[in-house]
Amino acid sequence: MKNKVFEKLKNIVYEVNEATDLISALNIIVQRTKEVMGVDVVSIYFRDHITNQLVLMATEGLNKNAIGKIKLKQNQGLIGMVVNQAEAVNIEDAHAHPNYHFVTETDEISFHGFLGVPIIQHRRVLGVLVVRQARKRRFSVNEEAFLVTLAAQLAGGISYAEKMGELKLLLNNKEDHSLNMQGLSGSPGIAIGEAVVVFPPANIDVVPDKHITGTEIDEQINAFKYAVSNVDIEFKELSKKMEGLISSEELALFDVFSLMLQSESLIQTIINRITAGQWAQGALRETINEHVKQFDAMQDEYLRERAVDIKDLGRRILTHLQSNNSHIQDVTGPVILVGEEVSVSQFSEVPMEHLAGIISTKGSASSHVAILSKALNIPSVMGIDNLPVNHVTGQKIIVDGYRGQIYIKPSKAILDEYSRLIEEDNSLNDELNGYINMPSETLDGVHIPLYVNTGLLEDISPSLKSGAEGVGLYRTEIPFLIRDGFPSEDEQAVIYKQVLKKFSPRPVTFRTLDIGGDKGLPYFPVVEENPFLGWRGIRIMLDHPEIFLTQIRAILKVNNYDNNLRLMLPMICDVSEVDEALVLIRRAHQELCSEGITVDFPLIGIMIEVPSAVYQMDALAKRVDFFSVGSNDLTQYLLAVDRNNKQVAGLFDSMHPSVLSAINHVVKIAQKYSKPVSVCGEMAGDPVAALALVGMGIDSLSMSTSSLLKVKKTIRSFSQKQAEELIEVALSMESALSIRKLFNDALDKAGLKKVMKGFN
Ligand code: PEP
Ligand code: MG
């Protein structure tokens, strides 16, 4: 029984996730659960958080007239008991239970067996899912497990459907009100623009079955034919674009695709399956997989490879079936880029001058999309996981990167308010611009150089204009991420040279390729269960010396300006990694010298971003010239909080006492060996955290351009001594909350409230 019922669970959850409004989602749940469990009644009660009542929202088996009318007090009856206990209640004879509450409208006198489970999201009880049986019945452990599992998986779908319903209402409504959604701040600032939606590649293997009947069949056939014709147009356009760029044999592949799209065996088979009651996506998956299997089994290698083409074709059709619009249109005005997981390459598809804001349904403040948007000074909001991405194309959206909120189709009042806030920001920026040429110095004259983090050529001019004293972190992986293959030594050297030349004589710290984790290269896929604990950064480079040496040669080669180049190794966990990397770097240097390219050997530093490195500081200090703390990863690894996971984003705080104490240790040991130490993670750009780091005795800070002047103003408002006193108190505190309060109050008192906006 268990497996049979649990098999259906996947389908129910999928259908609910596909529902376009809350009521349809709830109706799907009650209907399907009644069929699967063979019970007499299934109902859903929702908690009205304003009146604190439990309202009957959907039922199968009870009188439907009672929907919306039955309102129970929060602690009334067995339903109230489920809410209060926030756990399942399973009772053989509800009538005999002291908490039983009789409700006439639903004629429920005749039901005895009762099983109710809470629907919980983010610790909040949203409602109760109840099944009832006329006769006395104690539901089995399996049934209870099924219902609990179902409810646990439904919360996300329910809140998504709720937002979707609100959105539909809003879009069809002429009235002046907006839809507000809460996520996490990715990059501070406010942007107003038109939504352009980008979609990830469709995954055909995860499409479930779905049974359709009646008019749905014709609708699905039409949707399928429309998707096919769109793919055909796409191929014709692509083939035209590629003419002259690829060989005629490769070009002929597009004709093969077009022929496949007309092929009776493929297209008609899919239509037949839809006619038999399978929805278009399911019919496509079944047919494509059937064809792939046939090709895979062929002897001829050429034909076997056609399996890949068929899969690609299926994926393209699926993309059209799943989305309304998968192209970035020719944009003219300010654009808000919206996607499930906006990638670096999608950034570059919108002309920079039009890219006003970014919304990603996945990720958090420390994911790389957020870091990049900060580098480019583009407001972004991450982790709005219940945003109906498919339905916002072309809508006006406000991105509030300070509060991590968005407004879809904003009302006039909201628009006016945000236009005022943009003006306020502009005037703060004008004020901050006055600091560009001032030294980054504490009140008692301690110079704390402020560097920028970059990796994009577009970012160079704004960085220079902001008065940065150099580049503290050049993320070399970024040019690698927006290509189709590893760049050659010369291609890399061209990029590095530009950066070095532009910043000369100021120092530029190139970090060697730090891929893995959430920075996958499309042409070098690394599939792992735990990518952040896996093949990442220096580990990949030491395993692939050919890639590492090419990069090192490309970097060293351009060190012939003012000897302002520095080299930094990421993700160091062990001294042997430093030793091995140094051997390779020396080899590359010697090779260049013997080729007649005489360049200075640069200063070599490492990133401290893994706890093991914190505790090997003495050994590491004997090997390298400088340190830079990667507080993003150090926080992730010390607190065991995935930097990309919205679910635990509230736990990610670099002001956590353990993180501060680890950084303090790093600074102290580096000082013992007279080795300079910097911080280049996001905390360096947070004025509050920057002050804490100054108090520890950090030598320099490296951050996004957009934070630089705010941090400079902060540094200029305190003496090193004041910062030392604050950090001494902070290091004896027990929580990030109290530490933040300590520094917030200090900044507030110094008249720096405005520069803290968006950093708490
Ligand atoms: C860090 O981890 O703090 C860091 C600067 O590196 P990245 O964010 O690129 O991983
Ligand atoms: Mg890092």
Commentary on this structure:
The protein is an alpha/beta fold and 760 residues long. Helix content is 46%, strand content 15%. Helix 13 links the parallel strand 15 and strand 16. The longest helix is centred in the N-terminal third of the chain and has 32 residues, at 141-172. It starts with a helix and ends in an 11-residue tail after the last helix. The structure holds phosphoenolpyruvate and magnesium ion. Phosphoenolpyruvate binds at residues 371, 473, 475, 514, 609, 630-633, 680-681.
Q: Taking Cα atoms only, what radius of gyration do you get, to the nearest Å?
A: 30 Å
Instruction: Please work out how many helical segments DSSP would assign.
Output: 26
Mean pLDDT: 87
Fraction of residues in β-strands: 15-25%
How far the N terminus sits from the C terminus, by CA atoms, comes to 51 Å
Shape: globular
Largest β-sheet summary: 8 strands, mixed
The computed structural class is alpha/beta
Strands, count:
22
Bound molecules: phosphoenolpyruvate, magnesium ion
Q: Give the helix proportion (percent range).
A: 40-55%
Pick out its properties.
single chain, 760 residues, alpha/beta, eight-stranded mixed sheet, eight-stranded parallel β-barrel, 26 helices, 22 strands, 46% helix, 15% strand, binds phosphoenolpyruvate, binds magnesium ion
